[in-house]
Amino acid sequence: MQKTRFDELVKFPCDFTFKVMGLAVPELPERVVAVAQKHAPGDYAPTVKPSSKGTFHSVSIKIQVTSQSHIETLYRALADIEEVRYVL
Description:
By secondary structure, this protein is an alpha+beta fold. It has three helices and four strands, in the order αβαββαβ. It has helices at residues 6-9, 28-39, 68-79; strands at 14-23, 47-50, 56-65, 84-87. The protein has a four-stranded antiparallel β-sheet, with helices on one face.
């Protein structure tokens, strides 16, 4: 993971939006929410946008994070979803 200065730039806890891009399968948003629930239980309403050709979906989800390590854990867990190609 790249060295960042989140602890210096962000006041925790805060809402952090993750953008997850993956294959256009109906289960993708559910899997993203499941990861969010595991690491930060709460009510989530992700937004889903299809790519122009419909091959990929972009799932945006706002999660309350408590530290830089919490952000890094979520990035790794979201990237581990089989259909995911990128996490921003």
